[in-house]
Amino acid sequence: MGHFGFSYIGLIYMIMLEVPNIVWARHKPAGYDPQGENRILLVFERAGQVLCTVTILFFRDTNPHGWEPWITWLFVSMALMILYEFYWLRYFMNGKSLHDFYRPFLRIPMPGATLPVAAFLLLGVYGQLIWLILSAVILGIGHIGIHIQHWRKIRSYMN
Predict the structure, then answer these.
(1) For the chain, which end, N or C, has fewer CB atoms within 10 Å of the first or last residue's CB respectively?
(2) Cα–Cα distance, 61 to 156 (Å, whole number)
């Protein structure tokens, strides 16, 4: 079920997630248009964001428990969050274009959406925290779905 308590790992993840997004909000790519987003996907995304934030911060199960076989899941999750930071560095250091925003990073499709969702999911596996796993799935349906929707729209303009 999960053990209530503060997760410092969760706080680190939230900082890694939110800081680039706050900067992005001030440097959105030219042509970015959130109009016409699927309302169902948007509900999933918003619900997933709230659920992930609450579960990642207020269940201490995501804090390291010592050296154990499950720690591999934590390391992989952390690696995905570090890749997410590098994805943002590439975006901010390049032209901040729609292409840079949506293009694959190290062959990972939709990295701005898939990397954090996968990291949260694996952090839930590490903490054996079903609430975080479910929250990450809900977030993934909405967030990745919206990114795919935007990418299809952009590609149709390019063709």
Answers:
(1) C
(2) 44
- Residue ranges per domain, the chain? 8-26+39-158
List average pLDDT for each run of 10 residues in the chain, which is 159 residues long. Answer: 91 98 91 88 98 97 90 97 97 89 94 98 97 98 95 75
In 3D space, the residue among 7, 31, 17, 4 whose CA is nearest the CA of residue 155 turns out to be 31
C-alpha to C-alpha distance for 121 and 136, rounded to whole angstroms: 5
Residue 131 makes CB contacts below 8 A (sequence gap 6+) with 1, 2, 51, 55, 59, 124
CB 117 within 8 A of CB 139: yes
Torsion, CA 77, CA 82, CA 85, CA 91, rounded to 10: -100
Locate 120 and state its tokens. Answer: 């949260």
